[in-house]
Design a protein that fits this description.
The structure is a single chain. The protein has 10 helices and 20 strands. With 437 residues, it is an alpha/beta fold. The chain has a domain of 228 residues: FAD/NAD(P)-binding domain (3-Layer(bba) Sandwich), CATH 3.50.50.60. α1 runs parallel beside α7, α1 packs across α10 and α2 crosses α10. The longest helix has 16 residues. It starts with a strand and ends in a 26-residue tail after the last helix.
């Protein structure tokens, strides 16, 4: 294992082949793949925080799954899971132990005949695109495997190749396996330098780095960085919360799956030996902060992120998520998801998820929709500018393949899968891409 060079902002290198802005999973994975595809490429990775993975990753459940209905996402995850399964080969000796992937599965639960029918249709579609390992479970099979959920579940979709891992370890393994990178933390006031219609590098509060290529991979602040180069990236952000607690009800085993209810999809999985992490897919709105902002921003999204992010935490969120789980699964007060242990010693997490705005996700009939696809592409209007943004809540799970796509774009290499072209700026719609949990 080769150790990369971490330097202070005052030691900023003067030149690089590529500057990557953002030390989360998208930026770190691009570092990793640039080294694999073009060894010796001089990369400078800039992160505004004092550590890597300090942005939206802190609110993530750190999960991954294979059951994506849209072909680009399905193939992206198939590749990413292959990397997780063979982490030592891709990320160096000891990586598998470090990222500690736990493949416990995703269990999507249905409680009504209509929900059961929808789950069956989803499984049939997933089988048709090659994901034949996805299971449709009748109620009696759910009760046999997961009797502790209670009798309300009449059907389920199960993804046995889903699980979770240590995202912080994954991010650091990406850069540790890349000897040609220089990582600079606590870098402030980054803007992109442009001259004669092309990128020339970056300027920071601590000096400049001259480089012919710059990758924007800094999540919620990507739009601001793009504006410094004179381009408007088609992005919106939404605050997303999760809750970690030190305890879970005793019937929920340590080797249990990620459990997902019906809309609005409250979900929970085991965390460590005795804890849990949970949340739900809410439509964020606030009387204190103005949402929307232009014709392409949905009513529950922001054009510009607001800081400090902690001001957007909703104190009702933990109890609402637990109430949804208990109501759907029929757990009475004091039992199951209504057990009082969940409200003891909890920690509420929050981060921004970045999405395509409604100018970059449009159905064939002209209707905008909520896309799950990232934008990983060369910017069409500015030579030398690249982006790996709008990863929604999937930046960790898709990071191996996302890094490979970004590296291909920067190196001018062909994409490994034809479907990866759908992560471009100009692909506005893909079948089965509408928002799914």
């Amino acid at each position: 294992m080769t150790t990369q060079k971490f330097v202070t902002a005052q030691e900023l290198p003067a030149t690089a082949d590529v500057v990557i802005i953002g030390g989360g999973p998208a930026g770190a994975a691009a570092v990793w793949e640039l080294e694999r595809a073009a060894p010796g490429t001089k990369v400078v990775l800039l992160e505004q925080a004092d550590r890597l993975g300090a942005g939206s990753s802190t609110a993530s459940l750190e999960n991954y799954r294979s059951c994506w209905p849209a072909l680009p996402m399905m193939k992206q995850m198939r590749r990413s899971i292959a990397v997780f399964h063979d982490a030592d080969a891709y990320l160096g000796a000891g990586a598998a132990q470090a990222i500690h992937a736990k493949e416990r599965g995703y269990l999507f639960c249905g409680f009504t005949p209509a929900q059961a029918a929808a789950l069956r249709q989803e499984v049939e579609h997933l089988h048709a695109i090659g994901l034949t390992h996805i299971e449709y479970l009748q109620g009696d099979e759910v009760a046999y495997r997961y009797g502790w959920l209670g009798p309300r579940v009449i059907a389920a979709k199960f993804d046995p190749r889903a699980g979770w891992l240590d995202s912080n370890a994954l991010i650091y393994r990406y850069v540790q396996s890349s000897p040609s990178v220089t990582v600079v933390l606590s870098v402030q006031d980054v803007r992109i330098l442009v001259d004669s219609g092309r990128v020339r590098g970056v300027q920071t509060a601590h000096g400049a780095v001259s480089a012919p290529k710059v990758l924007i991979a800094n999540g919620a602040d990507a739009r601001r960085i793009g504006r410094s180069a004179g381009v408007e990236l088609p992005l919106v952000v939404r605050p997303r919360q999760s809750v970690t607690t030190a305890q879970r009800h005793p019937e929920f085993p340590e080797d249990g799956p990620m459990v997902i209810g019906a809309a609005p999809h409250p979900h929970m999985r085991p965390e460590a030996r005795t804890g849990a992490i949970f949340g739900w897919e809410y439509s964020w709105n606030s009387k204190k902060f103005r949402t929307g902002g232009n014709a392409h921003a949905p009513h529950d999204a922001l054009i510009e992120p607001l800081y400090p992010l902690t001001a957007l935490k909703d104190p009702r969120y933990p109890s609402l998520a637990l109430a949804l789980l208990a109501r759907q699964f029929g757990h009475k007060e004091g039992e199951g998801f209504a057990h009082p242990c969940y409200l003891r010693g909890l920690w509420q997490n929050i981060g921004y998820y970045t999405h395509r705005d409604h100018s970059a996700a449009i159905k064939p009939d002209g209707t905008p929709y909520e896309s799950e696809r990232a934008i990983i592409d060369a910017h069409p209007a500015l030579e030398g500018l690249f982006v790996s943004v709008a990863h929604v809540g999937h930046g960790i799970m898709t990071s191996p393949a996302a890094g490979e796509i970004a590296a291909c774009k920067m190196l001018g290499a062909p994409l490994a899968e034809a479907e990866y072209a759908a992560f471009g700026f100009d692909t506005l719609w893909v079948a089965h891409d509408e928002a799914v949990l």
